[in-house]
UniProtKB/TrEMBL annotation:
Keywords: Membrane, Transmembrane, Transmembrane helix. It comes from the Bacteria. The chain crosses the membrane at residues 36-58, 70-91, 97-117, 129-147. InterPro entries: DUF3429. It comes from Sphingomicrobium sediminis. This is DUF3429 domain-containing protein.
């Protein structure tokens, strides 16, 4: 069965609403929303760490979890943390760069999902959900960084 169940589909696509709203608010000509679009990049970081957790959970189901995927599954959290520190520290990393890095990682994340899927570690419908969500969220994250 490749049909995406109702709740994963609805909740997955609802997860695109925060960055859309943040980008819209960031475009309003209001001092209260100055650089508000950066929070769209932070949201992308949160979702990227969530994906790492999903990869961990899928791999951990195996009696001998593959070391490579276990290591790969913690990288999103470490990268997101590093980008946050660099953004809010003396480094003052530009939101455009953070958004680009996070957006590209989200766009590439289906490669990991596909690896897991080929080994039967994900639900049969997983890739049908992950591909469009990754394409849309990756693009929104890059846009949020550009606008911040």
């Amino acid at each position: 069965m490749n049909k995406i169940p109702f709740w994963p589909k609805v909740l997955g696509f609802a997860g695109l609403l925060p960055p859309i709203a943040i980008i819209a608010l960031g475009e309003m000509n209001n001092p209260a929303t100055h650089s508000f679009s950066f929070w769209g990049v932070v949201y992308g970081m949160l979702i990227l760490t969530f994906l790492g957790g999903a990869w961990w959970a899928f791999a951990a189901q195996k009696a001998k979890p593959p070391a490579g995927i276990m290591i790969l599954s913690v990288l999103p959290s470490l990268i997101a943390f590093m980008l946050l520190v660099l953004s809010f520290s003396f480094m003052n990393l530009a939101p455009r760069l953070s958004g680009l890095v996070v957006g590209i990682l989200i766009l590439l994340s289906p490669l990991v999902d596909g690896w897991l899927h080929q080994r039967g570690m994900t639900p049969k419908w997983w890739m049908r959900l992950r591909l469009p969500l990754s394409l849309m969220l990756g693009t929104l994250t890059i846009l949020a960084g550009h606008l911040a």
